[in-house]
Amino acid sequence: MNHSSIKIKPLALTDYDLWLHLWQNYLTFYETSLPSTTTETTWRNLLNDDVPVYGFGAWKDDILVGITHVVLHPNTWNTTECCYLEDLYVSETVRGKGVGRALIEQVYDFANQKNCNRVYWTTQESNTDARQLYDKIASLTDMVQYRHNL
Predict the structure, then answer these.
(1) Over the stretch 114-132, which tens digit does the pLDDT of each residue have?
(2) Which CATH number goes with the domain that contains 126?
(3) What's the number of domains the chain is made of?
(4) Can you count the helices (H) and strands (E) in the chain?
């Protein structure tokens, strides 16, 4: 699959069923599930221009084969916003064929257009396949994430 055969575009209302399928696969990949109300709210936020959450889809032959969601937010270390790449999922059938790279490059372009100062994301340390790509297109930091759920 070459890069030009992949079309990246913002997710639209009519993409819901296709998005939901990939979203559920993504949650399964991370061995988790979410209440349907959370999924519905996420979808609404992706389409709501008043919420700084955005979604993009990767299409191959009119089939949605990948999704990414990003959140723009202010920060204390710069005068412009950051772009947090919160979710990235590529269908197993097309992994390793440039879809993930195309989605991330779209996020880079989008963040640049929005005058963000950086794009950042986290992944599981054991996600070695994805990390091979990430090592080529971004810098690994020495930061460690801590979390306290409320």
Answers:
(1) 999 999 999 999 999 999 9
(2) 3.40.630.30
(3) 1
(4) 4, 5
